[in-house]
Design brief:
This protein is α+β, with helices and mostly antiparallel strands and 195 residues long. It has one domain. Strands 1, 2, 3, 4, 5, 6, 7 and 8 form an 8-stranded mixed β-sheet that branches. A hairpin with a 5-residue loop joins strand 3 and strand 4. The radius of gyration is 22 Å and the shape is globular.
């Protein structure tokens, strides 16, 4: 009988300990969700690289090296980046990944996924990149043409284009055309130095 009671006590302890771990994890996830919701509350995020954003500015909880910002239900939001050379970029976004070099450091880069579907999202993004960001027209046209051909059963097309933003900031666009699923995406990667 004593062995049965001991076994039941140990089982109860294991269950209650496991429950505590889940609760702590849920609290951390809840705090992270709340921080993201606060950052995205008005549907806009502005990154002014003349005064780079802190962890709190971008909803990154302590102890994390990355966080993905997205609105409830996949709702779009606007991301505006003001670079130190005066270049200004506004992107209609569906997600924004925020990255730091270590769990205690402020972020040094973001990757923003542009909102939109189909080949037009690539065409629009590259037209804007040519007119506003110094991307070469011939290079942009070649990427659009390659992306359009991806759905003819060819391999996926992934191309990176560098904008003319001046150091210490960097901006690149990456277009993705997935051949089998006929999906298109444009990601903007913004990097900055904290010095």
């Amino acid at each position: 009988m004593r062995a049965v009671l001991t076994a039941l006590a140990l089982l109860g302890l294991a269950v209650s300990t496991e429950g505590c771990n889940v609760t702590v994890g849920n609290n951390e996830r809840s705090a992270q969700r709340d921080a993201i919701s606060e950052v995205l509350a008005d549907g806009e995020v502005t990154l002014d690289l003349t005064d780079p954003p802190s962890r709190a500015d971008l909803g990154m909880q302590d102890g994390r090296e990355s966080v993905i910002l997205e609105r409830e239900g996949g709702e779009e939001f606007d991301v505006t980046v003001v670079f130190r050379d005066g270049t200004r970029l506004t992107i209609p976004a569906v997600t924004m990944g925020v990255y730091a070099d270590d769990p205690g450091a402020d972020p040094t880069s973001v990757t923003v996924r542009r909102a939109g579907e189909g080949l037009p999202v690539v065409e629009t993004a590259l037209d804007e990149a040519v007119s506003d960001l110094g991307v070469d027209r011939a290079e942009a046209d070649a990427v659009v043409e390659q992306s359009a051909r991806a759905t003819d059963g060819q391999a996926d097309v992934r191309r990176s284009l560098t904008a003319s933003v001046q150091p210490p900031d960097r901006l690149s666009l990456r277009t993705i055309a997935k051949a089998i699923r006929e999906e298109y995406a444009v990601n903007y990667t913004v990097e900055w130095d904290l010095s």
